[in-house]
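Annual report, structural modelling task.

Input specification for the zinc ion complex:
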Amino acid sequence: MKKQKILVIVKAYPEKSTKYDSSICTAGLTENSEWIRIYPIRLNIFQKSQNILKKWNWIEAKIEKSNEKLNRKESYKVDERSIRLINSELTKTYRKNTWDERNKILLPLLKKSREELEFLKLTEDISIGLIKPKSFEFYIRKPINEINVIENKISQLTLEGTKIRIPDEIGNFFAYKFKCDDPNCKGHDTICEDWEIREAFRSWRKRYEDSETLKEKLIEKFQTFMESRDLYFIMGTTNPYNKWVIIGLYYPPKIIQNKRKSSLDQFVKS
Ligand SMILES: [Zn+2]
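The model returned the following structure:
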């Protein structure tokens, strides 16, 4: 295994996985600005390293190429016990330059469209990519009071003797319909696996018991608020079907239109 520095960009909601119990998939960038996906990180390790596996932390971990069936080029197996924090400067949004610095790292990776990602998947085996939707609509695929939630109130004792709370299991019916800035785009409809949405649903359903209000609050955050920002989708293909879904949301504050246009032109050369 080799040591690798990784900037954490994506954190997905923990999924039950038969092989590893609940495990968390995390994606980020290497120092060479290459996408990397690391797993499995088991829940007890994840809980202990909550403050380490945070979006925009630089971490270091021992990794080796994963031997998964899909052979996605960004997938690495991580020695979960080797994960350590290197630098958390980019998590601090109160710093003046944080968003600029994040943009400088992430936006050069912007691809034109979901269609381009598919092309690169077929030609270069990529399985993670950043796109900017031209238009988007957040929606919930099921009536909100029918979303299955298994509350795990009981803490589980780990082998090391520490107690951890098992996250609630929440069916993922949170999705975006969107169009890319591409004449060939026929529109897309895909679930969003970003930690934030199900986490918001999980905590807000206790605060807003009326399901209509809960739905309004979710739409307010994941549609209305996102419209006021510059929303980007980090897309990744999932195991085992290798289909594209949104694995993370990136939403810097909007910058002045002209500045943004010229900086985008500079990034999207292909
Ligand atoms: Zn498209």
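The mean pLDDT is 87.
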